[in-house]
Specification:
By secondary structure, the protein is α+β, with helices and mostly antiparallel strands. The chain has helices at about 1-35, 125, 145-150, 170, 215, 230-245, 270, 390-400; strands spanning about 45-50, 55-60, 110-115, 130, 155, 175, 180, 185-190, 195-200, 205, 250-255, 260-265, 285, 300-305, 315-320, 320-325, 335-340, 355, 375-380, 380-385, 410, 420-425, 435-440, 445-450, 455, 460. Among the domains are: about 95-165, no CATH class; about 180-220 and about 265-460, no CATH class. The longest helix has about 30 residues, at about 1-35. The chain is globular.
């Protein structure tokens, strides 16, 4: 019997030990889950209850949830959404950004601009942001600032913006008063092979023979500076510095011979008609071509302007659909006519005016009558007379504008034929390839090519003198 008692006792001992081991293992697992029973601890933080009974997350052991209480669980059949998902393709269905199109710039109006040209979305919130000077208005341009934005008001982006959060041109743009550019420089001089070269920047015609307008328009007290450089670029750098030191200087003329002249700005009167009855800012002419040889004269050069050279209302224009600003864009051309390679009496005849062949007439002229002589009435009491240089060009220009097919004119500027005007046509990009320059008998005139809406007319290459051009 003793052995039976021993066996029973052994069985009871083993059973009690097994139960204790199971309880200890359950306790460990509860701690690892963060439940930590009474007196237990956890490194993960536990979910407790606040005073209102709402579950809270804590980093300590202050309160626990009862895992057996169903009210502490949240069930959902919407995958965590506030409402069941809408079937794809249904109205209001969610669309992932990645599957949306690139943002349409038309979404961003008023003071809004695109966040980026690669941004995807179809709403203002996804695609647009407020304009801000310090942020690039055109997201893909460098440096910051969209020049076209400022050009709308004839301005440039202000790198030293006083208000980086600005949203208007007045806040983000400025008038440019320091830059220089050649004006009326366009690819319209045709060679026989169809290629073109840029024109020279024309010196304005403002009255008197040759360069006498400098006496009237000279800035500062010095007529001209000489010996400033061996190239146009060297002379420009020196001349620019001199102009910047003279308050009334807004343009400079520089030559291949190192000469520099400073010029005062034009005013509104120069475009509307001045006290002498003519528009002095109407025309300009290129200076090239010594003695008709096609070689640059030592006084040939380039004309550079600041925006301040023109009155404010003339500093912006649209050419071929693009906004251009004076002093910034070289193809900016407010002139109505540009002369080719000088005129008859410039530099004592060493810089002759050149005629264009073939010589085609405009203005309804036929037979032996090819030109309008002095005394011809233009309109009302306006007629051609023996004018001085600039008024003569102006009157002939007004005659040309009466005819749609007039693409330029030859004007006699001295002698018995002074004031006579011969309107021309047929000078197109195609005909200009084989057209050439010729020195007419005498040197008492100049050929002016019409400028329409800022676009200069075609003309022969300046080195095509005396013969049909070769490539």
């Amino acid at each position: 019997m003793l052995w039976l008692v021993v066996v029973v006792a052994l069985v009871v001992f083993i059973g009690v030990g097994y139960i204790l081991l199971k309880e200890d293992d359950s306790s460990k697992k509860e701690k690892e889950k963060g439940g930590g029973g009474p007196g237990g601890e956890s490194n993960m933080g536990v979910q407790g209850l606040d005073d209102s009974g709402v579950g809270t997350s804590t980093g300590g052991t202050s309160g626990i949830t009862d895992p057996s209480d169903p009210s502490n669980y949240v069930s959902s059949n919407s995958g965590g959404l506030d409402s069941p998902p809408v079937a794809p393709g249904s109205p209001g269905a969610y669309q992932e950004i990645a599957s949306k199109p690139v943002c349409d710039p038309n979404l961003c109006t008023g003071e809004k601009v695109l966040k980026s040209t690669t941004q995807k979305g179809d709403t203002v919130e996804e695609c647009c942001r407020d304009k801000a000077c310090i942020i690039d208005w055109n997201p893909d341009s460098t440096p910051p600032g969209d020049p076209d934005q400022c050009k709308e008001d004839g301005m440039i982006f202000d790198e030293d913006i006083p208000n980086p959060n600005g949203k208007t041109n007045a806040e983000c743009c400025k008038e440019d008063t320091t830059s220089y550019s050649r004006w009326c420089v366009q690819d319209v001089a045709y060679k026989a092979d169809g290629t073109t070269e840029k024109t020279r920047s024309p010196s304005p015609v403002t009255g008197g023979w040759g360069d006498a307008h400098w006496e009237r328009r000279r800035a500062g007290t010095t007529d001209k500076f000489t010996g400033l450089g061996s190239s146009i670029q060297e002379t420009f750098n020196e001349c620019k510095a001199k102009c910047d030191d003279v308050p009334d200087c807004s343009a400079i003329w520089v030559t291949t011979g190192g000469e520099c002249r400073l010029q005062q700005p034009f005013t509104s009167v120069d475009f509307d008609g001045d006290e002498n009855g003519y528009i002095s800012a109407l025309s300009g002419y290129e200076k090239n071509n010594q003695n008709g040889t096609g070689v640059d004269h030592s006084a040939a050069g380039e004309f550079f302007i600041k925006s301040t050279f023109l009155p404010p209302e003339k500093r912006k224009m649209t050419i071929n659909g693009e906004i251009k600003i004076a002093g910034i864009d070289e193809d900016f051309c407010p002139l109505k006519y540009t002369g080719i390679y000088g005129h008859g009496n410039w530099d004592s005849g060493n810089y002759p005016g050149m005629h264009i062949n073939p010589n085609l007439n405009s203005g309804g002229m036929t037979g032996a009558v090819k030109c309008y002589n002095t005394g011809t009435v233009i309109e009302g009491d306006l007629k051609l007379e023996k004018h001085s240089f600039a008024p003569g060009i102006n009157k002939c220009g007004q005659m040309c504008e009466k005819y749609d097919d007039c693409e330029g004119f030859w004007v006699y500027t001295s002698g018995d034929s002074n004031g006579r005007c011969c309107l021309k046509t047929g000078l197109t990009p195609e005909t200009a390839k084989t057209a050439y320059l010729t020195k007419p008998a005498g040197t008492n005139g100049m050929y002016m090519v019409r400028v329409k809406d800022g676009v200069m007319g075609a003309r022969p290459w300046r080195k095509s003198v005396g013969r049909a051009k070769s490539a």
